[in-house]
Amino acid sequence: MDTYELLTRNAAEVVTEEEVEALADDPDGKRAYVGYEPSGVLHLGHLLTANKLIDLQDAGLEVVVLLADVHAYLNGKGSFEEIRDTAEQMKEQFLAYGLDDDQTEFVLGSDYQLDDDYELDLHELELATSLNRAQRAMAEIQGGETAKVSHVVYPLMQALDIEYLDVDVAVGGMDQRKVHMLAREELPSLGYEKRPAIHTPIVGDLGTGEGKMSSSEGITISMEDSTEDLEEKVNSAFCPPTRDPEGDLVNPVLELFQYHVFPRFEEVVVERPDEYGGNLEYDDYEALAADLEAGELHPADAKGALADYLDELIAPGRQRLRELRSE
Ligand code: IYR
């Protein structure tokens, strides 16, 4: 796979293709980052962007993971102390999941976001940005409650992070795109360069295929799930083998194969007893999706394999969480 393909595979959007092509031409020493509001337990939404970070590391980029404690505080996620405690757990889970210890820098937002120069730049951005613009940038990140002043400061800080962490590309889910667009527009007015962004898709709820998997309703999969939990959740997932009236394959089981399993495993084996045709082996997602659609692969067999692979992916993080909790 060439470097551009590795940087952009499974992305929902690349801003802009030319800028990311330039990165792909000369990836050495370049830095990419994702920021996360610390939370005690990772879920598949976190792991989707982590998969992109692993792609970027494989392409030779350095990766910065921002544990955005101040952002979580501004977004009403608890006391500052509680948030700081979960940041360390989050780091440990990412390392267990497969981010390379030597190639990943973990930074706490509060390590630099409370400094004078950052604060003054933030105020300059506050002066330059309309309330309306900041609120729109924040709409998909903020939980539904009434917007507070903190919710309009948040996206401006996120824009500044790109400069202060000295990164060459920002990575995030599609829910972060308006913040990255605001950053591209506003950073130059402070004399800073605009940087490209790579956005990953938002995978739908397992039960319906709609909405965000990380949302509080619906079925989510997390680092805490036992093997049995995973089997149960995957088994109850929506998995229509055919297209909807619009011609789209709305199928969360396939999405999980595409975004979580194939990027991390060279080959996927669906085990079947000989009397049902024996094992099926796939090198890529398209072949598996085609077999499901054609009826060659039964949804129940696909689900069984999916639960096994997800279990393998989260097992090290689940183990690490147990150790941390018993300390
Ligand atoms: N807005 C993110 C968290 C976040 C991301 C980045 I990139 C930052 O620089 C700061 C915060 C979220 O929704 O989790």
TrEMBL record:
Keywords: Aminoacyl-tRNA synthetase, ATP-binding, Cytoplasm, Ligase, Nucleotide-binding, Protein biosynthesis. The keyword Transmembrane helix does not apply. Pfam families: tRNA-synt_1b. Gene3D superfamilies: HUPs, Tyrosyl-Transfer RNA Synthetase. Its main location: cytoplasm. One of its GO terms (biological process) is tyrosyl-tRNA aminoacylation. It catalyses: tRNA(Tyr) + L-tyrosine + ATP = L-tyrosyl-tRNA(Tyr) + AMP + diphosphate + H(+). Homodimer. This is Tyrosine--tRNA ligase. It comes from Halobacterium hubeiense. The lineage of its organism: Archaea, Methanobacteriati, Methanobacteriota, Stenosarchaea group, Halobacteria. The gene is tyrS.
